[in-house]
Design goal:
disordered N terminus; tonb box; 52% strand; receptor; membrane; mainly beta; transport; 5-stranded mixed beta sheet; 22-stranded antiparallel barrel; 40 strands; Maltoporin, Chain A
């Protein structure tokens, strides 16, 4: 190999090391999520820190032998942000016009939380969760008032990517948090706003997850833990290299949890593996994984049941989620300034749902003149989806008009075939409110859907001066959805829909000093209606979620427009801070309009006009000796901006027809205005660490109270205190413990208005005298867990 080729190989290896170090190692010294990181202005090449560090080391070594060598300076590492779905060179944070939040594997492992959504809610500004289904693995997650939820029918507003593959399930755009391999996560970046390069459904932000590889994680470890509510969990991971060019990584985990309530047990099984080839110019990666989970929920319960918050409203309610996926990804440097990256994937997902439901028509007169005496129904539904797609991205580094420039062009195609079946069975309630089936299940729906999404995107970051940079982006999206009835009994279900739009973005960054970055940005995004929304959009033919499809009149796509200004910086060597103000307006927002009240799943989807989420974020972190303090304050003002009418007969302000009128300025339910978070880390000794999270979440309105006029008022805010600790017994062995809800606070994170049919003695069925109540999702009581982790190389 020539000297010139050897030099090029070394530079590219340094670049790769720089990217890995910047995203992972540069953040590893901080105790929690990094919300602000300022660096000196640099060119877009991510190789700068590694090259500078290498030069400094080389200079120091040569200086010992030759006193005439000029001293060199080691630059601070650059935090690299992935501003597109595909992995690639990335963009230095100083050039990114957004309040990006970054989390690494050490942060997640340190706190030992049961679920990923719980970690995000306890640590990241503007992130909250609500428990609408009564299972910790099925939380609704909100970021800046936008939702990523596993619940079919929830209007989704966040995109989630794993190694460049979008994991919002095509049928309903839901995010199943229980399928994400938490132990395999290397870094997470939460990118706010309507960044168009992330494609469909990025209305309020995108969560980009990168998984571990064996080269950067060449260790193995096994972990076991147990504690409250019969929770038992075990996991193992192993990473390493094979020769100079191959590395591998594997992890698997299993958990059984009886649940803190009477009917919310969980069984989790996950596995993930990756095999990777790297050389100076090329990286090829093949990853595969899967999950097989069984989740039970306790539902929301009426406030009159809160004397025993562990009891379910009705049961059974069960979700069986299984998934398998395969991803091939790679990138190649043609030279130091040209990189091509891409991926191809296949995912298989299956959800089998069993739910128990009160018959809201109990006691009414049937068409034949008889009285309806059916107490309940059992519903079984299955969603099976095969999704597949590919992406390709070209990155060019160079100069434009004498100015440093980074240009990215990409394209993506995603397709999915889904089948939905649903059957219903008449049932009656036992005294414990379990349902007993009467007769056989009868099929009601058998539908197939096909979705195809195409996207072409461009983004260019131009360094106008050493202090100023300009970013221009845009993406053209085209979506096609076909819905068909396979049973032959619902021809009105058949439909074909297409949506398309070009979404632009512009941002500018100002770096007056190495310790300060200021920015301003405007961007637009789009969410096309999902198959379940399109097939359940007729007010004259309401359907039951997530069960029944009836008709498909047109819905308009949701368009988001986001403005954001902010700044981030560093004070001295131990303090970082960030501040941001934003406003996102949605046109043609989609809501589920209940036909019989918010406590019921009977209804239809409708465009309700304009909504808005606007607010501020303040965050900072400082280190003082053995103490590290991280804090944030978030304010979100989420309101309707149009007038529309909703059926909510359980709302005390409803008219004689059970309708309420929502006016501009009314607050959107489930979104707290204020959240405050504080994380304290104390290194008591070199081996012993103690951490504490304090989370204050403000009050919220219940679903069904969209006009904010119900007599029950808001659901109260609450303060939670969690603690975690670890002790390094030996180099290989660590013991750890955690406590959630230390003060055993009784609280509720979700609410909906509805009718309580269990007003008989001992809360037994009394369908002739239902009472309008506020239903809530109680939070878990105090829990305690201990475990140990053994690591080897």
């Amino acid at each position: 190999m020539s000297m010139r080729s050897q030099a090029r190989r070394k530079r590219r290896l340094q670049r790769r090391a720089g990217i890995t170090f910047c995203v992972g190692g540069a953040l590893a010294g901080l105790s929690t999520s990094v919300w602000a990181q300022a660096e000196p202005p640099v060119a877009a090449s991510a190789s700068a820190p590694a090259s500078a560090s290498s030069a400094a080391s080389s200079g120091a070594a040569d200086g010992n032998a030759n006193s005439n060598t000029t001293p060199t300076t080691t630059l601070a590492p650059i935090v690299v942000v992935g501003t597109t779905p595909l992995l690639g060179i990335g963009t230095p944070l100083t050039l990114v016009p957004a309040n990006v939040q970054t989390v690494n594997a050490a942060d997640i492992q340190r706190q030992g939380r049961q679920t990923l959504s719980d970690y995000l809610a306890a640590n990241l500004p503007s992130v909250t969760i609500s428990d609408a289904q009564g299972n910790p693995y099925q939380m609704n997650l909100f970021y800046r008032g936008f939702t990523a939820s596993p619940l079919l029918g929830t209007p989704q507003g966040l995109s989630v990517f794993v190694d460049g593959v979008r994991v919002n399930e095509p049928f309903g755009d839901v995010v199943n948090w229980d399928l994400l391999p938490q132990q395999a996560i290397d870094t997470m970046q939460l990118i706010p706003g309507s960044n168009p390069t992330f494609g469909f459904n990025t209305l309020g932000g995108a969560l980009s997850i990168t998984t571990k590889n064996g080269k950067d994680n060449p260790v193995g470890e096994a972990e076991i833990q147990g504690g409250s509510w019969g929770r038992k969990a075990a996991q193992i991971e192993q990473g390493g290299t094979i020769g100079q060019n191959l590395d591998y990584y594997f992890t698997a985990n299993a958990a059984n949890d009886n649940g803190w309530a009477e009917q919310n047990e969980s069984r989790i099984r996950q596995a993930f593996g990756k095999l990777r080839y790297t050389d100076a110019d090329t990286t090829l990666s093949l990853s595969a994984g899967g999950a097989d989970n069984d989740l039970h929920g306790a539902q929301t319960i009426p406030r009159s049941f809160l004397g025993n918050p562990r009891q379910p409203y009705t049961y059974p309610d069960q979700n069986q989620n299984s998934a398998g996926y395969l991803t091939l990804s790679g990138d190649h440097y043609f030279n130091d300034n040209v990189e091509l990256s891409g991926n191809a994937y296949y995912r298989h997902f299956r959800n089998a749902n069993t739910s128990s439901n009160v018959n809201n028509d109990y006691g009414t007169i049937n068409p034949d003149g008889t009285v309806d005496t059916l107490q309940a129904t059992n519903v079984q539904s299955t969603v099976t989806t095969d999704s597949y797609g590919a992406s390709l991205q070209l990155t060019l580094l160079g100069k434009l008009g004498g100015m440093q420039n980074q240009f990215i062009a990409g394209m993506a195609v995603d397709a999915a075939d889904s089948r939905f079946t649903q059957s219903s069975q008449d049932a009656a309630f036992t005294d414990s409110r379990a349902t007993v089936g009467i007769g056989n299940f009868a099929q009601q729906t058998n539908a197939n859907t096909h979705n195809t999404n195409y996207g072409i995107y461009l983004t260019d970051t131009l360094s106008l001066t050493p202090q100023w940079s300009l970013t221009l982006s845009g993406r053209y999206n085209w979506a096609d959805a076909t819905i068909g009835d396979e049973s032959g009994t619902q021809p009105q279900l058949d439909g074909h829909h297409t949506f398309s739009r070009f979404n632009p973005a512009v941002g500018i960054n100002w770096n007056p000093t190495p310790a300060l970055t200021a920015y301003a940005t405007y961007n637009e995004g789009m969410r096309s209606p999902t198959a379940i929304e399109l097939a359940c959009a007729d007010p004259n033919a309401p359907c039951s979620l997530p069960n029944d499809f009836i008709a498909d009149p047109s819905l308009q796509p949701v368009i988001s427009k986001t403005y954001e200004v902010g700044a981030r910086g560093r004070i001295g060597g131990n303090t970082t801070w960030s501040a941001a103000a934003y406003s996102t307006t949605l046109d043609n927002d989609i809501e589920f309009i209940s036909s019989t009240g918010a406590g019921s799943s009977q209804g239809f989807f409708q465009n309700v006009g304009r909504t808005r989420r606007q607010g501020v974020e303040l965050a900072g972190q400082t280190k003082y000796g053995p103490f590290t303090v991280t804090g944030s304050y978030s304010y979100v003002n989420a309101t309707y901006q149009s007038t529309w009418v909703e059926s909510s007969p359980s709302n005390s302000s409803a008219d004689a027809n059970g309708n309420i009128t929502v006016h501009p300025g009314d607050h959107i339910p489930s979104i707290p205005a204020t959240t405050v978070k504080l994380r304290l880390d104390y290194a008591a000794t070199a081996k012993w660490r103690i951490g504490t999270n304090l989370t204050w979440r403000g009050s919220i309105y219940a679903q069904g109270d969209e006009n904010n006029q119900d007599v029950n008022g808001k659901i109260s805010g609450y303060l939670l205190i969690d603690m975690d600790t670890s002790y390094q017994v030996t180099k290989q062995l660590q013991v750890f413990a955690s406590v959630s809800n230390l003060l055993d606070k009784r609280y509720a994170s979700f609410g909906a208005l509805g009718e309580n049919f269990f007003t008989g003695p001992g809360n037994t069925f009394n369908g002739t005298a239902p009472v309008n109540e506020q239903f809530v999702g109680p939070g878990a009581p105090r829990g305690f867990w201990v475990g140990m982790r053994y690591a080897w190389k």
